[in-house]
Design brief:
Blueprint: E1 11-14, H1 16-19, E2 45-46, E3 53-55, E4 65-70, E5 77-89, E6 93-105, E7 110-118, E8 123-130, E9 134-145, E10 151-160, E11 165-177, E12 187-191, E13 200-205, E14 212-218, E15 224-231, E16 234-239, E17 247-254, E18 257-264, E19 280-286, E20 305-311, E21 314-323, E22 328-334, E23 348-359, E24 377-383, E25 388-390, E26 395-404, E27 411-421, E28 424-438, E29 447-450, H2 453-459, H3 465-478, E30 483-484, H4 494-502, E31 508-512, H5 534-553, E32 560-563, H6 573-586, E33 591-593, H7 598-604, E34 616-617, H8 626-634, E35 638-639, E36 641-642, H9 662-673, E37 679-681, E38 707-708, E39 711-712, E40 719-720, E41 725-726, H10 729-747, H11 749-755, E42 759-761, E43 764-765, H12 769-786
Parallel strand pairs: 1-5, 20-28, 29-30, 29-37, 31-32, 32-33, 34-35, 36-37
Antiparallel strand pairs: 2-5, 3-4, 4-11, 5-10, 6-9, 6-11, 7-8, 7-10, 12-13, 13-16, 14-15, 14-17, 17-18, 19-21, 21-26, 22-25, 22-27, 23-24, 23-26, 27-28, 38-39, 40-41, 42-43
Helix pairs in contact: 9-10, 9-11, 10-11, 10-12
Length: 787
């Protein structure tokens, strides 16, 4: 990374004498970023003096801090210091610093950032340690980087840039070179409320696995409230307590060094006030609405539910039970038998599940329409139906799903959902309207949602693995999504494909074009360029020839593709050309699909001739271009798109549990509006090992979400249930998007016209569920009349 228009810089040469000080002496000049009499900041290169000021009142230490405040698109903030080492070595790098935030919306570029220059001339870029977004007091971020090669130079950056905006103060940075002992790295305190009113979750990290520690929470008078001890590189401690703690005393020891920490328990923004002062309230919410345990009903919250759906469609709503200060010990839900005015029974199924809540992981990429900064428990897993409790001052969700069968008569059906709270019954009126048309058996929406065998079998190694795969595939098929895997290194069983086709599947990957792995692997994303030898191409032929012949017997090649070169750059273009040539010569009825950078290269330079060596392109949604895609389709290509840990707000994305559920549904509308040929998502079961949910309760404190560049929950749309994976609210909203796509496909250009009432651009779209419901109703009524 390079800065321009730097006003001042200093380079340190660390020689033999300084080497003896690693771990004791901060290697940064002026680590407190103090300003001198001339207005300079000795030791630091400044990106732009317009991007920050000095604050002598708000500081972590010393005389002042740097403060940056920016709106989207304004000048970024950044400072940098460069350190050279006279004797390069591979000693670890410990680095970090302090920041305070006010209404910071971050896409993970609010951080300390290192660029590493190795002795051999190579580089390791973007070693980062990020602060939390939102609003918080002084917070330290601190990490350890273990280099694989000797380091000759480090560029130490402090950044507040790209889509990040808000206000942040910066002070007291640290950089050391030494083998860590018992240093405490990043840590955070979060409230366990409303599951535990006074409980606190402490998450702290060390930099080695042999750290022995003892930790205790104490109140303001020094009375111990809870204690734990252990050994390892992580403390994940959820401590219910009878009183609110004021501090955490932590003693840690490793490598003959003992360190003592006294940490002030500083919690995030307080939770909203519960308007229910006694008893409870039962209310409902749309399936596209995010409802956490700290979400309480407004005075006009609905107390009934109205659902519209086509034949052969699923649709859901949320039934919520909110408790006052006293917990509710027993809640039961009884679903009705729906009937129309003539007494005819509804032909379909009703099902309810409990909403599960998982711990929030920090830091996270914050969404402006997301949860409050102080919340810890977030909804997503859907747990099997059973009697449940509701904690005091908590809202517990019940997810109700209705499916109309293909033979269901159009019309309106009604009944009462019975909710029994500690023996007291309440009826929640439910009305279901069935449109007079059916969704097609084969899905209209081309998708590739990757459920990976390696991860599935690692999590559930026991029993019949083929039956386990079929169980997981059924969840995806129930959600009208193809149970695919772009990274698979074994072709799918023909019997599984035939089963999935009967249930609606419309696309599948045969193979990731990489060498067959040796031994047990979770997955293979891509292969190095040197792997593509003549022998590998012969291996491709020997594996694909008989398999493709079998696909042709069953008329399956029209759904088939081979995948490869996941997000690879232009250095792979010649290899992709060879693979494409092989596929087209031997298997012309099978597509070659890639998320390589060829599309992006063509967008930058339309005259390039080396970027056509695939059949199906797949850029990020933020890279997709209508005009370029139309030209490629005119040449016979397809253009899909995908999301992952990006793009971020203001683009639609469902990969993060922090984002509004509705965005998972709206991506299908955007896909139809922009004539996209399909949607790809890289992973749905990104968890492993023997961990299982405790399905007797709704709060799951032992689960830790994935985090890919701050997009928390990326790749996790299924969760580890006791007898197999369980689905999620995000997956249900993606299902509803797939069904909406059926509506749109059946309506043709009329549907595309209505899309403009949902979205005007890729970043300007409604997040109002009632608006989506209104447009769906128009489509449903139009299709019923055109039947």
């Amino acid at each position: 990374m390079r800065f321009r228009r730097m006003s001042y810089w200093v380079m340190l040469i660390i020689g033999a004498l300084a080497l003896t000080c690693y771990g004791q002496e901060n290697l940064l000049v002026n680590p407190g970023v103090e300003v001198d009499a001339t207005g300079q900041v000795p030791g630091w290169r400044l990106h732009s003096r317009k991007a920050f000021t000095f604050d002598r009142d708000v500081k972590h230490g010393g005389e002042s801090s740097l403060v940056a405040e920016r709106k989207p698109g304004e000048e970024p903030f950044g400072v940098m210091q460069e350190i050279e080492f006279a004797k390069p070595d591979k000693s670890p790098v410990l680095f970090g610093g302090w920041s305070k935030a006010e209404n910071v919306l971050s896409d993970y570029d609010y951080n300390v950032y290192l660029d590493i220059f190795h002795e051999d001339g190579s580089n390791t870029w973007a070693i980062t340690s990020a602060w939390n977004s939102g609003t918080h007091d002084w917070e330290k971020t601190f990490r350890c980087y273990w280099p694989q090669k000797p380091i000759a130079k480090i560029q130490f950056f402090v950044l507040f840039r790209h889509d990040v905006h808000g206000k942040a103060w910066f002070d007291d940075f640290e950089l050391y070179r030494d083998v860590p002992d018992a240093q405490l790295g990043e840590y955070s305190f979060q409230t366990l409320a409303p599951m535990s009113e006074n409980g606190v979750f402490f998450d702290g990290r060390f930099f080695r696995k042999d750290v022995e520690y003892v930790a205790s929470f104490k109140d303001a008078a020094g009375k111990e409230l809870a204690q734990t001890s252990g050994k390892g590189d992580r403390i994940r401690w959820q401590a219910p307590m009878a009183a609110k703690p004021a501090k955490l005393d932590l003693n840690a020891e490793a490598a003959g060094k003992r360190r003592t920490y006294e940490l002030t328990v500083s919690l995030k923004t307080p939770l909203p006030e519960n308007p229910i002062k006694s008893g409870y309230r039962i209310w409902t919410a749309d399936s596209m609405t995010n409802v956490s345990p700290a979400t309480y009903p407004k005075e006009d919250a609905p107390q009934s539910a109205f659902v519209e759906l086509a034949k052969a469609e699923y649709e859901s709503f949320q039934l919520l039970v909110s408790a006052g200060p006293q917990a509710l010990k027993s809640v039961k839900v009884i679903l009705p038998e729906l009937k129309d005015r003539e007494g005819t029974a509804f032909s379909g199924d009703l099902k309810w599940e409990r909403v599960g809540y998982i711990p929030r992981r920090r830091p996270y990429s914050r969404h402006p329409d997301g949860y409050g900064d102080g919340e810890f428990w977030l909804p997503d897993p859907l747990l099997p139906a059973r009697e449940f409790v509701v904690h005091g001052n908590a809202t517990q969700g019940v997810w109700v799903t209705i499916q109309a069968k293909r033979d269901c008569r159009a019309g309106q059906y009604s009944g009462n959902v019975e909710v029994v709270v500690d023996g007291e019954k309440t009826n929640v009126p439910l009305t279901v309207r069935v449109f007079d048309f059916a969704l097609p058996t084969t899905f209209s929406y081309p998708t590739a949602f990757c459920i990976m065998d390696g991860w599935l079998f690692d999590a559930y190694p026991e029993g019949d693995l083929n039956a386990r795969r079929r169980q997981a595939w059924d969840i995806m098929l129930d959600h009208r999504l193809n149970p695919d895997d772009i990274s698979r290194t074994e072709p799918p069983r023909i019997e599984d494909l035939l089963y999935a086709r009967e249930r609606g599947m419309n696309r599948f990957n045969i193979l990731n074009m990489v060498p067959k792995p040796k031994g047990k692997r979770l997955w293979v994303c891509y292969a190095p360029q040197e792997a593509y030898t003549p022998e590998l191409f012969e291996e491709f032929k020997s594996r694909l020839d008989p398999y493709v012949a079998e696909l042709r017997k069953h008329d399956l090649t029209k759904y088939a593709y081979v995948y490869g070169f996941d997000e690879r750059g232009e250095s792979y273009n010649p290899i992709m050309a060879k693979v494409h040539k092989l596929v087209k010569e031997r298997y012309p009825d099978v597509a070659f699909f890639t998320t390589s950078m060829m599309y992006k290269q063509l967008k930058a330079d339309p005259d390039r001739a080396d970027c056509y060596a695939n059949d199906w392109y797949c850029p990020l949604t933020s890279v997709y271009d209508d005009e370029l895609s139309a030209k490629l389709r005119a040449k016979g290509h397809q253009v899909w798109w995908y999301t992952c840990c990006g793009p971020r707000h203001p683009h639609a994305n469902f990969s993060s549990i922090e984002y509004p559920f509705i965005e998972g549904r709206l991506i299908a509308w955007l896909s139809y509006q922009h004539r996209v040929d399909g949607f790809l998502f890289w992973h749905v079961n990104l968890w492993r090992g023997p961990y299982r949910f405790d399905e007797s309760v709704c709060f799951q404190p032992g689960f830790e979400s994935s985090s890919v560049r701050g997009m928390v929950g990326d790749g996790q749309f299924l969760y580890p249930g006791v007898t197999g994976p369980v689905p999620s609210i995000r997956l249900a909203n993606i299902r509803d998007g797939s069904e909406d796509y059926d509506y749109l496909s059946l309506s043709g250009e009329y549907g595309r016209e209505l899309c403009s009432q949902i979205a005007t651009t890729m970043t300007d779209f409604t997040r109002d569920p009632s608006r989506v419901r209104q447009i769906r109703r128009q489509l449903g009524e139009w299709l019923s009349e055109k039947k």
